[in-house]
Design a protein that fits this description.
Blueprint: H1 2-9, E1 14-18, E2 37-41, H2 92-101
Antiparallel strand pairs: 1-2
Length: about 130
């Protein structure tokens, strides 16, 4: 495993981490689906085993703090105020929002419905 780590670490356009070194904001350390080595390509680069790989117009797996990784989120319905803009949210919070709107028990995640409170007509309902 050390040789694999060193090989990726030598590539200038990627960030290479052992699982325990991954920045905490990515929430990878305790995820059982994350392997022992994490490699994240810099913006504008891709990792592929194919020499003839052609990049399409979309992509994922980049650092979620990049502006290019952001998306538009819009919500509409009886529980939401009209014409409200809130600060940016992380996708992990959408799960908590959906569970709250459907009034179902949400399994523990790193997300929170609190990020949406300013958009609710009755925030105390959530």
């Amino acid at each position: 495993m050390e040789q694999v780590y060193k090989s990726f670490k030598a590539i200038p356009q990627v960030q290479t981490y052992y699982k325990h070194e991954v920045p905490a904001r990515l929430n990878y350390q305790k995820n059982i689906r994350i392997g022992p080595i994490v490699v994240i390509a810099d913006e504008g680069y891709v990792l592929s085993s194919r020499a003839d790989y052609k990049r399409d117009n979309g992509g994922h797996g980049f650092d979620n703090y990049l502006t290019s990784m952001r998306a538009v989120f819009m919500a509409r319905g009886p529980g939401f105020k009209k014409n409200v803009t809130i600060d940016s949210i992380e996708n992990v919070n959408v799960h908590a929002l959906i569970c709250g709107l459907l009034d179902i028990r949400c399994p523990p995640t790193n997300g929170s419905i609190i990020r949406f409170k300013d958009a609710f007509i009755n925030p105390d309902d959530f």
